[in-house]
From TrEMBL:
Top-rank lineage group of the source organism: Eukaryota
Domain Ppx/GppA phosphatase N-terminal positions: 16-317
Pfam families, per database record: Ppx-GppA, Ppx-GppA_III
InterPro entries, per the entry: ATPase_NBD, GppA/Ppx_hydrolase, Ppx_GppA_C, Ppx_GppA_N
PANTHER family assigned: EXOPOLYPHOSPHATASE, RETROGRADE REGULATION PROTEIN 2
Protein name per the record: Exopolyphosphatase
Domain Ppx/GppA phosphatase C-terminal: 330-486
Lineage of source species: Eukaryota, Viridiplantae, Streptophyta, Embryophyta, Bryophyta
Species of origin: Sphagnum troendelagicum
Length: 560
């Protein structure tokens, strides 16, 4: 059990995780409190007595939470502490009064740890990415690939710092003036131009820009709470809950105009999607981000739910375990973590076995081992590699609802998948698809009467129906949770599909009895026929039968 605390300029965050012997970890608890450690001091040069008392109170609570979880705690401090002239006294007081040691990070160390945190949330390990993290006192920039930072730096561009310096933070009744915004923009432009960030970023082509931490998350929330009308005004759009956690430079510009148009903090608190506690600093943060977009040529940014504190966890695990390397396929690791959290070992093995069978069926449906190309259903060709991965994830997770109750466990699985913080690297739409597939793997099939299904785009609905038809058969083919079926081979002709199931061999060398599995799968064939428009059948075959069937025309792949 490990706890990591990020003592930020604006707020303190703590995460508690449980790690296994290989260093894979799952989130157990989180805590966040606004401290405003950098407030009340010109240019964040002093930690005031009031801020110190707030910090002590929060750290004591975090320490108690970590102790309740029996977690080792590591605390890191960022811009407000490293720049404070009284930082040594502050760190000493934390040790004497709260009994905790504080590790003060350099700006470059902070940037590198943020990158490690992002890698735990998004599947971008093999991509060259630019990570931008706007904090209260500073903004960190990292170019990284394959887990290694190529360039990392920290600039004194923080939303609290600049709000106090240019926008009158603390004088909440004052109205925002155009001259203040213009002066702020000029200051940001000068800092960016003099820092070397622009030249370093432009010299390395990055494939994706990623933003992390509160300011950028708040901007994304505002963007996805609003929709631009033809006249440029915004209205609430609560119906669209399946948006990607990303935004464009046009979306960002719309938010900047909105927050600047709200002249007072009170007016900004009414902006949909903006957390009330960020209303006094969002203008500074949004303008910093817009100037970064413009200076670095960023057109789109993806948002990471993980940042510095998760990077601290990764760093602690690397110190704890020999030969530790963070998981590079964060999506699959997070699916397996969630499945193992709620499944018994036998159900876990069965779920993974069914997932493999589902993939064999779907890949087989995209190939033709006999006949011409017209034997392959158009529906099968709609599905791409990413869709197959979603179906595998749903099949691995279809059992998790049994943790709550065996009765209607598919509905419990749907709920657990939608309402958890463990599925990383998936967009909200992808999580919705996984949850719906788990819900429909038995009993009722997808229907427009289900509001969640009806809300999906039309093409996505067709894909879900196809994946569901395959998944229901695959789950049925492990009806007894014994992995009795070794493989499935798909043979197609125009208008028909034959599934040849190959039983596993038992300890005596005899083929396993798969009659119950085949019976269960037959009950799922009518829905399969409805979706794929092909007459399905199932036969039990051994290697000699397959050899005979494979003497038909040579197979060829129809999926690219």
């Amino acid at each position: 059990m490990l706890a990591a605390v990020d003592m930020g300029t604006n707020s303190f965050h703590m995460v508690v995780v449980r790690a296994d012997k290989q260093g894979k970890f799952e989130l157990v608890d989180t805590a966040k409190e606004d401290v405003r450690l950098g407030s009340g001091s010109p240019d964040i040069s002093i930690i005031t007595p009031d801020a110190e008392e707030r910090a002590l109170a929060v750290i004591k609570r975090f320490k108690q939470l970590a102790k309740m979880r029996n977690a080792d705690m590591r605390i890191v401090a960022t811009s407000a502490v490293r720049e404070a002239r009284n930082r040594r006294m502050f760190v000493r007081r934390m040790l004497e009064v709260a009994g905790v040691e504080i590790e003060v990070l350099s700006g470059q160390e902070e940037a590198c740890l943020i990158y490690q945190g992002v890698l735990q949330a998004l599947p971008v390990y093999d991509k060259t990415v630019l990570v931008v993290d706007i904090g209260g006192g500073s903004t960190e920039f990292v170019l990284g690939k394959a887990g290694k930072p190529l360039y990392a730096t920290s600039l004194k561009l923080g939303h609290i710092r600049l709000s106090e310096q240019f926008l009158g933070l603390g004088r909440s009744r004052e109205e925002l003036k155009k001259e203040q915004i213009e002066e702020l923009r000029r200051h940001i432009q000068v800092i960016l131009a003099d820092s070397g960030v622009i030249e370093n970023v432009q010299s390395t082509s990055f494939e994706m820009a990623i933003g992390s931490s509160g300011t950028i998350e708040s901007i994304e929330q505002m963007i996805n709470h609003t929709a631009a009308t033809s006249t440029g005004s915004q209205t609430l759009s609560n119906s669209n809950t399946l948006h990607e956690r990303e935004f464009t430079i046009g979306d960002l510009g719309m938010v900047v105009k909105k927050v600047c148009k709200a002249k007072t903090v009170e007016q900004r608190t009414k902006i949909p999607g903006l957390p009330e506690k960020r209303a006094d600093v969002i203008v500074g943060g949004a303008i910093i981000l817009e100037e970064i977009f413009l200076a670095l040529g960023i057109q789109k940014m993806k948002v990471s739910p993980y940042a510095l504190r998760e990077g601290v966890i990764v760093d602690a695990l690397a110190d704890t375990f020999a030969n530790y390397t963070p998981g590079v396929n964060i999506r699959r690791v997070s699916v397996l973590n969630l499945a193992s959290k709620f499944n018994t070992e036998q159900r876990m093995v069965s779920a993974q076995h069914s997932a493999r069978l589902a993939k064999e069926i779907l890949v087989g449906l995209q190939e033709c081992k006999s006949g011409g190309q017209d034997c392959v259903s158009e529906v099968a060709l709609l599905l791409q590699e990413d869709d197959i991965e979603l179906m595998e994830a749903a099949t691995i997770l279809h059992y998790v609802g049994m943790f709550i109750n065996h009765k209607a466990y598919h509905r419990h699985s749907h709920y657990l998948i939608k309402n958890n913080e463990h599925l990383l690297g998936y967009s909200p739409l992808e999580i919705e698809i996984i949850a719906l597939l788990a819900k429909y793997h038995r009993k009722k099939v997808p229907s427009s009467k289900d509001g969640d299904f009806a809300m999906l785009p039309e093409e996505v609905q067709k894909k879900v129906q196809a994946m569901c038809a395959v998944m229901r058969i695959a789950v049925a083919l492990d009806r007894c949770d014994t992995s009795a079926i070794e493989h499935i081979h798909v043979y197609q002709r125009p208008g028909s599909v034959m599934l040849a199931v190959v039983p596993a061999v038992d300890s005596t060398g005899a083929l396993r009895d798969v009659s119950l599995e085949v019976w269960a799968a037959h009950t799922e064939l009518p829905y399969f026929e409805k979706i794929f428009k092909r007459k399905p059948s199932i036969i039990v075959a051994d290697e000699y039968d397959l050899e005979s069937m494979n003497t038909d025309p040579v197979s060829f792949s129809l999926s690219s």
